Amino acid sequence: MNGRLGLGSYAYFWRHSERAPEPLTLADELRQTWDAGLDLFQICDYAPLLDFTEAELRATRAVADDCGVELELGTKGVAVDHLTRFAELAVILNARLVRSMVLPADRDAGLAEVEAGLRQVLPRFAEAGIVLALETYEQLPSTDLVALIENVADPALGICLDPANNVAALEHPRDVVERCAPYTKNVHVKDFAFTRTGGWIGFTLEGVPLGTGLLDLDHLLATVDPVGRGITMITEHWLTWRGDYAETARLEGEWTDQTITRMKEHLT
User: What is the top-level taxon of the source organism (predicted)?
Assistant: First the structure.
């Protein structure tokens, strides 16, 4: 795994949704990733994957191989049996990273139990050469996430850094980046901004095209050093529904193109 840019399922959120007249398939997204000049795709929170037969999984791997695209996986939760299954999926798909997150139910059960479960499952990841990256999220303060990583102290465990998520818990993105950078194995690249709601009562936190919002990309890249440290960066968006499919899909593709262009400028 080296430091490079890829696409993820959330870059196709609307175009593979039930609202699409002809939803994109996973194979379509892999081919479009290659067409965009990228060689990495993170299959993230893609529910049908758990129902794939082994033949379907191997067919997906074959499409990725034909396109020259490396795969990563993404899921939610840290239950031992669930993570064990994703380690198995990663082996079949030749994925070298699995992104997950500590859900509220996991947290409520106690971080000591989460830690014990990670210690139980991580040898399976390490044996297969797979990294498990837990994402920064508002459900778990970044201080607690870092403490969890430090307590487990396993090279197969790290952080998927997405500083936009923790804004909802009143954590400043720069603080999250600096706190989590030493343990970061994967970055979700998306920009975000606050806008006033109708009547000027309250705010909405939503996605915007990269470079037009509050994400300090220069600080993120300088602090994390993804290229120098071999950290993969996955493009995704918080694009809200725009009233009809055609306009929403157009913007989704446009935002992806803009992100790729801007990231290539920053990485060259």
Answer: Bacteria
